[in-house]
Design goal:
Layout: E1 2-6, E2 9-10, E3 17-23, E4 35-37, E5 40-43, H1 46-51, H2 55-60, E6 68-74, E7 77-90, E8 95-102, H3 104-111, E9 123-125, E10 135-136, E11 140-141, E12 156-157, E13 160-161, E14 164-165, E15 173-175, H4 176-186, E16 190-192, H5 199-202, E17 204-206, E18 222-224, H6 235-246, E19 248-252, E20 258-263, H7 264-269, E21 273-276, E22 280-285, E23 292-298, E24 313-316, E25 321-329, E26 331-335, E27 340-344, E28 366-373, E29 380-384, H8 408-422, E30 425-431, H9 434-438, E31 445-448, E32 451-463, E33 470-478
Parallel strand pairs: 16-20, 21-31, 23-25
Antiparallel strand pairs: 1-2, 1-6, 3-4, 3-32, 4-8, 5-8, 6-7, 7-8, 9-18, 10-15, 11-12, 13-14, 15-17, 17-28, 19-20, 22-30, 23-24, 26-27, 28-29, 30-33, 31-32, 32-33
Length: 480
């Protein structure tokens, strides 16, 4: 049995069934699938019209009805919170066509088209320090930031010489984890997961090509967060880019709007499993592994003509399946004059002053803030794509490159991609009750017969008056 309750009360349902698809969000690198129903009709009873605020009237007036927050109950138990998405009005049938979305699909409906630069993400006073909790002021080299403007600029942003910041050319780099929390809070979601508190992840900052100036060229008094993010970057693009770069899985709390972040390597390596009764196999396809080609983004500029950038790509076996992300990093090079490791880009920047234009031109580029590190002339705030300081000492366990022991492939992707390389596809129709549904986890393996699997998709047909009895599973075999 299925039922939906809005803040104004229970909705009236027509007798029959509603089809649901539950997608495991871990199996798509280019999107984050969740829970969605096939379109279904709600009868135009007085109660439904009142509780849904007459959506067909608003649609006829040119308004797009907003997603309606709703609780979904199965067999009288709360299963998911989500939203009803208005599709159309069918006057001859006296029904309003809706679909139900939850988890990632609910989030997707809320963030569609939203750009970070257009969100109110707050602000804080600008404090010239290397360890502010919301942003870093790590040294960067960009000779071309001001172009041919004569403003006393010597090619360094956040210049830190002799133990102190010098000059007025400051470019705050927002810390990724606090930024992610602010972005999701704007659309009503919290975020949690052990990945967020890993030391290397806590050190991640988002490169900005904007300086903290006002229109007159004076140092700004505040860091307004939405001014230091890539101008065209949407919330959805941010989530997908992080997912691809770090091999992350996004899971959702069923009854609270919480995004849970899981490392896919941990899912692949976990041996725990649940025993499930075997049903009838209806389809089986063997693995079709042809290798992977891993790519990340790199900021455009003259610097790419001078240095090796092959680290941004890694071919594994045949390399036929491409895993590319727009996210990336900056070149980090040893500056011979300063004897310091510095991120290097040679491109025009953004500022409301000096006719530079106020819009950021950079992509999503991440760096690690490794704190104050020793160098000639005194310690300086190191932001870098790597895991070592100028002296070659390890200051982290992860580097923003694909290859190598500290690279993203070995540290993040390899166990999960190995699992996918060996996994075919198998479909089964199996006994499935409400208790099974309430304890379902995308990260937990299932022992069905003699083999272990991870489920990729579950299809349900829920009757408005009868209990749940079975489901169709799409499985990925796990040969471990």
């Amino acid at each position: 049995m299925i039922g939906f309750r809005t803040a104004a009360g229970w909705l009236d349902l027509s007798p029959g069934t509603i089809g649901l698809e539950i997608s495991n969000p871990f199996f798509r690198y280019d999107a984050v699938p969740g829970v969605t129903s096939y379109p279904f009709g709600l009868p135009m009873t007085p109660g439904n019209l009142r509780r849904l605020n007459f959506p067909h009237v608003r649609a006829e007036q040119g308004e797009t009805p907003a997603p309606e927050p709703v609780e979904c109950y199965l067999d009288h138990q709360l299963w998911r919170i989500g939203s009803l998405i208005y599709e159309e009005h069918q006057p001859e049938k006296r029904v309003l066509q809706y679909k139900f979305v939850a988890a990632a699909d609910d989030l997707a409906a809320r963030i569609e088209g939203l750009k970070l630069a257009e969100l109110d993400l707050g602000q804080v006073p600008l404090v010239v320090t290397h360890d502010h909790p919301d942003y870093a002021l790590g040294m960067l080299k960009n000779p071309g930031f001001y172009g041919d403007k004569q403003v006393g600029y010597l090619g360094l942003l956040n210049a830190h010489i002799g133990g102190n910041y010098v000059g007025t050319f400051l470019s705050p780099q927002l810390r990724l984890v606090p930024l992610l929390r602010r972005v999701l809070a704007h659309v009503g979601f919290d975020v949690e997961g052990a990945w967020l508190s890993e030391p290397d992840v806590e050190q991640l900052v988002v490169y900005s090509d904007r300086v903290a100036e006002d229109a007159a060229g004076s140092v700004a008094t505040h860091v307004v967060f939405n001014q230091y993010v890539p101008t065209g970057l949407t919330v959805a693009q941010l989530l997908v880019a992080l997912q691809k770069l770090f091999a992350l899985g996004y899971d959702f709390d069923p009854v609270r709007r919480i995004l849970r972040i899981t490392r896919l390597r941990e899912v692949a390596l976990d041996d725990a499993y649940l025993v499930r009764a075997a049903g009838a196999v209806t389809r089986a396809i063997g693995p079709k592994y042809e290798g992977y080609l891993l790519r990340m983004g790199l900021e455009d500029g003259e610097q790419n003509k001078q240095f090796d950038t092959s680290w941004r790509e890694l071919r594994i076996d045949g390399g036929k399946t491409e895993l590319a992300t727009d996210a990336g990093t900056l070149l980090t090079v040893l500056d011979a004059g300063l004897e310091r490791l510095l991120p290097l880009v040679d491109a025009k920047g953004a500022s409301p002053a000096h006719e530079l234009g106020n819009d950021s031109r950079c992509g999503l580029r991440l760096l690690f803030d490794r704190g104050l590190q020793p160098a000639a002339g005194g310690a300086y705030p190191l932001v870098t794509s790597g895991h070592v300081n100028t002296a070659g000492q390890a200051v982290g366990e992860l580097a923003l490159q694909w290859a190598g022991p500290q690279g993203l492939y070995a540290q993040c992707h390899q166990p999960w991609l190995d699992l996918l390389a060996r996994a075919g596809v198998e479909e089964r129709t199996q006994p499935f009750r409400i208790g099974d549904l309430l304890t379902l986890s995308p990260a937990r393996k299932e022992l069905v017969g003699p083999r272990k699997y991870l489920w990729e998709k579950i299809s349900l047909s829920i009757h408005t008056a009868r209990r749940l009895e079975s489901a169709r599973f799409t499985y990925r075999p796990v040969r471990r």
